[in-house]
Write a structure and sequence with these properties.
With about 70 residues, the chain is an all-alpha fold. Helix 2 runs antiparallel to helix 3.
Length: about 70
């Protein structure tokens, strides 16, 4: 996998964060995305899932742009 593809994955996943209705949905999407990115980049998919899940769950509380309840 080349670097352009690797950089495109977080961009696409971030753009979908605003489409999810609540923290739980964003957390699950973040965990799935983190696991995929962790596996593809040669890292630990479980660690990626933990970090991605936390980022998805707390993005609304941290006022991240594009992350809001509908």
């Amino acid at each position: 996998m080349n670097i352009r593809s690797l950089l495109l994955i977080p961009l696409l996943c971030t753009s979908l964060a605003g489409c999810l209705a609540d923290n739980t949905e964003r957390g699950l999407a973040g965990a799935a995305t983190g696991a995929v990115i962790g596996g593809v980049s040669g890292g630990n998919p479980i660690a990626g899932a933990v970090v991605g899940g936390a980022a998805g769950y707390f993005c609304h509380d941290l006022n991240v742009a594009g992350c809001r309840n509908q």
